[in-house]
Design brief:
Blueprint: E1 14-26, E2 36-46, E3 54-58, E4 65-66, H1 84-100, H2 103-116, E5 120-124, E6 130-139, E7 148-154, E8 160-175, E9 184-194, E10 201-205, E11 207-213, E12 216-223, E13 227-235
Parallel strand pairs: 1-8, 4-6
Antiparallel strand pairs: 1-2, 2-6, 3-5, 7-13, 8-12, 9-10, 9-13, 11-12
Length: 236
């Protein structure tokens, strides 16, 4: 495969045993807004409780984040849940890249730092073992295709590392073709296995569920390593 997933290399990731991502796509582009709202609930079970207070970046709960603002491919969720201390490590890399004149590394880090301007720190206290992030994304139609939308997700997140027999589950609820008001067809729904160091795709993540249930189409993936997901849907 020639797909490469942009990702952040973290020196000391936090070990996790499970992660669950639930996304509900709301067809708000059909009732007055320019975009579809995506409500995301992301829960992460740590292998052990936090030994100190930790801050992580996430979109503010007061507004839907426009994923086009920094990342045209919608991959801002690569940076949701980024640990504050890991970003400090990146600042040191930035200084080194300046000293070496490494333009590619400077551009990569510049995009990373820009992404944090769209996010807000969330504090979790020492002793916490389940982290919860709740936020909204704003999905605008694809350029030239006003009825088509792309949703991309990375699970669990860059600052975390699945260990042992970990379970990573992603559930996406979309408007169904049975919904006469907002009926939609899913043109592509795929989960990718990838190497978090190189970003290169190594295979597919199998789905465990895909089907229409009432007025919603539900897609579920379950895996044990870092997966990346992409859904492309179109309104009729």
């Amino acid at each position: 495969m020639d797909i490469k997933i942009p990702s952040l290399t973290v020196a000391n990731p936090i070990d996790i045993t499970w992660s669950h991502v639930s996304c509900t796509v709301l067809s708000s582009s059909k009732y007055g807004l320019e975009y579809d709202r995506v409500k995301v609930l992301h829960e992460i079970g740590l292998n052990a409780p936090l030994t100190q207070d930790e801050s992580f970046y996430a979109p503010p709960s007061t507004r839907a984040i426009d994923v086009r603002s920094i990342f045209p491919d919608g991959n801002i969720v690569n940076f949701v849940g980024q640990r504050y201390s890991d970003l400090q490590d990146e600042l040191q890399k930035y200084g080194q890249a300046v000293a070496e004149g490494n333009v590619d590394e400077l551009n990569r880090l510049h995009q990373l730092f820009l992404s944090t301007t769209m996010l807000s720190p969330v504090l979790f206290k020492s002793g916490t073992q389940v982290l919860t992030f709740e936020y909204e994304l704003a999905l605008y139609p694809l350029e030239g295709n006003p009825s088509e939308f792309d949703l991309t997700l990375l699970a669990p997140m860059p600052s975390f590392r699945p260990v042992g027999q970990s379970q990573i589950t992603v559930r996406i609820d979309l408007p169904s073709s049975n919904n006469l008001a907002f009926n939609a067809d899913v043109l592509e729904s795929i989960g990718y296995q990838f190497d978090p160091t190189s970003g290169l795709v190594t295979g597919d993540v199998p789905k465990i569920l895909e089907g229409d249930y009432g007025l919603r189409k539900i897609i579920v993936w379950n895996w044990q390593v870092d997966p990346f997901f992409h859904v492309h849907y179109r309104y009729r």
